[in-house]
Design brief:
By secondary structure, the protein is mainly α. It contains three helices and no strands. The chain has helices at about 1-10, 20-40, 45-60. It is elongated, with a radius of gyration of 24 Å.
Length: about 60
Amino acid sequence: MFRRWWMWLRTAEVDRGMATAEYAVCTLAACALAAALYAVMTSGTVKELLRGMVEKALGVQF
């Protein structure tokens, strides 16, 4: 049974990856997510929260 499945797997026309258009869409989605994350991380509120956490952890004032 395993041999039959393995032969079918090796000879079947199985789509094992993304096509070029799918790569483009995924790349655009990743860039959009990175841009949104950058916008959030550089906002004033998040900067102050991160600065407060670092100051509290290190015991110093910036």
